[in-house]
Each structure stands twice: as C-alpha cells, then as structure tokens.
Automatic annotation (TrEMBL):
Every DUF4371 domain range: 5-216
Family matches, as SUPFAM superfamilies: Ribonuclease H-like
Annotated protein name in UniProt: DUF4371 domain-containing protein
InterPro entries cross-referenced by the UniProt entry: DUF4371, RNaseH-like_sf
Length: 313
C-alpha cells in the first residue's frame, strides 16, 4: 500500500487518532482550559490572601519603587514573595510564569478586589444590625489628595445587648454643605438597606454645618427622623480639650524659658529674683499660707528666709 509516509498510511493513522477520544481537539482544549483556570485561581487566591492580611493590619499596598530591580517593592509584592517562598506552585505560577495580562497584581485589580471585600463586610454589618435601631457618627475631613471625605460609623446594640460600633463606609463629597452631607448619608444607608427612620442618635463635631439649629446636618436629619437626638462627639470634645491644654503647656514652658534666659544672663537680676522670692515666702508664712514645720526646721525670720532662698537653684 506504499511506504510509512504514503498518503494511505497517513490516512490510517488519522483514522486511528479519530477513534481515540483522548486525542480529540475538544479534549485537548478542555484540558488546557482546566490548567489555565487552576493557575488563574491560584494567582487570584494569592493576591486575595496577601490583601486580606494587609487590610487587617491597616498597611499600605503599593511601594515607592515596584520595579523588578527594586530592593523593596512594597508591602503587597513583598508579601506575595513570602507566600511564594513556602509554596513552589505559587512561586512558579504567580511570580515566574504568570502571563502579563493575568498577574492580578496591578493597582486596578487591587481596587476591584478591595471593593468586593468592602461589599461583603457591609453585608455582614447589615446582617448583624438586623431590625435594631442604630445611631450614626459622621466626620468629614480633607485628605492628602485634596478631596473631601466623609466617614460613616454605626453604633447599635446586638442580640446580646452589647454596644457595637462598625465602620460602614467612606464616601467622597463635593463640598461640606449640610444638605450635601445629608444626601450622602441617606445614600449610604439606602445602599445598605437601612432606613433613616431607624436612626436614634447622631454624633458630629461642633462645626456650624454639623450642629446648626436650623440648617445644620443635625436639623436636616431631625426633620427626617425626630428621634435622632444629637450629641456633640465626645472624642472631638476630648480633642479640643487636649489641644487647648497643650497650647497652655506650650505657652508656660515658652515663658518659663524666656524668664530663665533673662534672669540667668545677669547676676543682678538673679539676686533680685531671689530677694523677691524670699519676701514672698516670708509673707506667706506670716499669713499662715505656708507650712514651715516645727522646731529646728522652722523658718522664722525674713533674714533666715533670704539665706535659705539663696541656696535655691
């Protein structure tokens, strides 16, 4: 019938291959697709595990220099390297042989995964609240990107009657007008299937746009829900108190340093200060405002007071 390379023998071999289902193109493609899917799942799982750890530890993802020759490629890539060091499959699939369009390490992929995780967290918070009433705590500030950000925190009692606080969302607002903040809060609650009528308290800082009696955020929320009583945020009050106290302490030490520099620069001023201090101590002793002790430790005269004050550093 001809040699082994003849057309007849070639056709016979093709016929035998056709009878073998393992050699069919659909089987080969299916096997190929399973391998690609397995590798893609491994790469995605590695990315998610690294991101979950960084999110839980409140660490940044991106590095200053993420190039291949960088000694420190950032927290995310360095975490992937650690995971790869304990798993040869991760090292080969994620770091070495990953295709350029399916590495799952870019910033866009990270943002998409973080968004999915945020939705799952919000869903869990909504299930934890159930039908309970809740309070809202809102704070707005401008971050380094020059964007106004509004943080929304919910405070509620769970089924075990424990007071729980959950960070719900961080949204960008165009301005800090009370109506803009109110609409943003309503949108956040609506997106999480929460009713504004279930609000039983609201806590903000003391800015006029937040606590204004007529057009502030507090007043706008009260019009929607009359049971949403307003409380000035205790943390913000503590911050204001600490700022005022630190300012007074700073002024005290600044003035004390000025006095020390002025007095120590002249022996005459130092003697005058000691003289005035001795007279002040003697006056307090005469008025009974200063306890001097008894017996040999008693300071009785102005001369003795002056002598003792000269030894005061």
């Amino acid at each position: 019938v001809g040699g082994p390379d003849s057309a007849h023998n070639y056709s016979v071999r093709c016929y035998e291959d056709l009878k073998t289902s393992v050699a069919h193109i659909d089987k080969a493609m299916e096997k190929r697709n399973e391998k690609v899917e397995t590798n893609s799942r491994l790469r995605l799982k590695t990315t998610i595990d690294a991101m979950r750890w960084l999110i839980f530890q409140a660490c940044s993802f991106r590095g200053h220099d993420e190039s291949a020759g960088s000694k420190n490629q950032g927290n995310f890539l360095e975490m992937v390297k650690i995971l790869a060091s304990y798993n040869k499959d991760v090292a080969g699939v994620v770091l070495e042989n990953a295709p350029g369009n399916a590495r799952y390490t870019s910033g866009e992929v990270q943002k998409e995964i973080v968004g999915i995780l945020a939705l799952e967290v919000q869903k869990a918070i909504r299930e934890e609240i159930g039908n309970a009433k809740f309070c809202i705590m809102v704070d707005e500030a401008r971050d380094e990107s020059k964007k106004e950000q509004m943080a929304v925190v919910l405070r509620f009692a769970n089924k075990e009657a424990e007071i729980i606080e959950r960070f719900l969302d961080l949204v960008h607002v165009n301005d800090t007008a009370a109506l803009t903040l109110k609409n943003a809060i309503c949108t956040v609650l609506l997106d999480n299937n929460l009713n504004v009528q279930d609000i039983r308290g609201q806590a903000y800082d003391g800015a006029s746009n937040m606590r204004g009696e007529w057009n502030g955020l507090k007043a706008l929320i009260l019009r929607e829900c009359p049971y949403a009583y307003y409380i000035h945020c205790m943390a913000h009050q503590l911050q204001l108190a600490l700022v005022a106290a630190s300012r007074e302490v700073h002024n005290f030490f600044q003035n004390a340093n000025f006095v020390i520099n002025v007095v120590s620069a002249s022996t005459k001023r130092s003697d005058e200060l000691l003289e005035n201090q001795a007279e002040e101590i003697a006056r307090e002793i005469e008025l009974g405002e200063l306890d001097t002790g008894r017996g040999q430790n008693q300071i009785g005269t102005l001369q003795e007071t002056r002598r003792r004050c000269r030894w005061i550093p």
